[in-house]
Amino acid sequence: MKLLKSLFIALTLTVLSFAGQMEINTTGDTYKINLMPIDSIVFEKNVQPNKDSLYLVLKGENLVTDVKSLRLLTIKDVQFVPYQNSDEESISIHVGSGALKGDHKFSLKDIESIDFPVMNDTHDADGDGLTDVYELFYGGTDPRLKDTDGDGINDKDDLNPTTPDVEINKNYVAGYNLYDANGEKIGGTVKQEGTVRIAISYIPNTPIVVELLTNEPVKTVVASLEGTSIDVTKIDATTFRFKVPTLKTASVDAVELRITPENGKVGINTIELAAIMSFSSDLKLWPAEGINAIDVVFTPNKKDERIAGYAILRAKGSKGTGVNGTENNKVLENLSLTTSEKPIEELVPEGVSVIKVIDRSSLANHISKDDPTLAIYRDPVGYRSDYYSYRVVAFIKENINGKDVYSYKMTDVLTRSSGKIRFYYKLIKFGTQYMKNTWCRADMRIRADFYKSSQSAPGKDNAKYNYWFYNSGSVNNKDNVVWEDKADNDGDNDAVSMNQNVYALDLSYGEDVNIIFWNDADCGSETFGIRASAKQGVGFHFNDIIQTATALDVSENDWEIYTFTYGKGGVTTNESCSNCGGDPHAGWKFRIFVKWMESGN
Predict the structure, then answer these.
(1) d(CA 166, CA 258)
(2) CATH value of 167-275 in 3.30.460.10, 1.10.443.10, 2.60.40.10, 2.40.170.20
(3) Does residue 248 carry a pLDDT above 70?
(4) Is the pTM of this model over 0.70?
């Protein structure tokens, strides 16, 4: 490798002891010069130039021993500040960007060495014909850009490489059209000056074709994305096309265009391409089949292949005055998510849970059979649940500058519970039948009550329904019950009306409803020794109950009628008690209705 005879570093000096510039002779692979308290300035060759950095190695107590964060590409100025007292002489470094942006001053007496690692005096990072060393320390141009001042002229050929010779934002643009890989138009805009931003809601995982239309004949169009050149195809004098790599949702891709007309100065325009995620904010909550869960229903964007999945968020809601008589969880309602380097699980606040993440590969398992545009997640909250607030978050995961970056878009918030089963019942008839002999008609007392399987059975003295009949039934009625709507009261002929109030039992998941019956009879007097009694029960199983549940209101006259007759041998649902065992016989008729309801009703 042919080395430069010497390398000059331009440093601002004001006294003869640091006369003008420092010359570093290059007689070998390492360049050194001793200068007053500075121990050495070192250049190392043949290493990656994009990692070039300035190292200050300091000596003395309470000093940083190794400062490594001052990258050469961020250093705008290095200045020696001398004083009459050499102890006060210092070096100041002005950093233009990065974590250490600002001015840094170090006393020369504390500096042990200044190292510039990874410098190669022949490397040309931007390919403009000027070495990085020359551009950094002599030419004043940017070693990363072929055209530092952006005027369309290469730095090597530009007489004024830091002063643009262009007309910024000269409007040669008549419009833009955007196409996907299949040639389908996915966006565009008409004539715009300067910088124009185009938002695209659907971005396939392929490059985007941008078509530039100019309003006058153009010789050349030079395009670059983040400093990287893009090939431009000239269709005709006013139409040019170029491809932009797959866009990132978490960032805006800015393409700079240098347009050289047939006559006139170079014009600079910028088109910013914003890849927007499209996701419907609509959310529905349905009572799940079996009414022991909540169906979270949303509309996925199946067309956008960038969407990695959908997160189901849940928080404790409440009954209130909002939609459907509910109140949303305010923490979930106020949650705002846009872009982050953290996954959704690390972003949700206290009180909000990610109960399910449906990734793209498993989305098909959640698509509704009745409506393929909808996806459903069934949350098994249990029967008669609390109120819960839900929100669905669509997310895209991208790698930007070596880091995972997530973009989020959310639905609205809705709240509901799984609901409950309410078992209504109302007495409409009762009756008795007793026949010992043709000469005997019994006095009878019948009782009945309803209770949940989680409760203890009531005693007959506390039964809700409790009636006495004088000379009940008919001696000629055999097994059939005589139905009535009034009971006797010590022989005064049907003086007591039956209780026709409507009662209800709220059932927890798995609870059954039981009905218990009692029947006590006295035929004549104790002389005949024919006193008799019967106690029977019947139940409604929960799984059978929920099959008949409805959310609709139904008139009491349309409630289903259930008939129960019973004797010593059991209970039947027939008018006749021929299969319910020996005397005494009695019966009840109830209207029963089973309704699904919100928990708070």
Answers:
(1) 9
(2) 2.60.40.10
(3) yes
(4) no
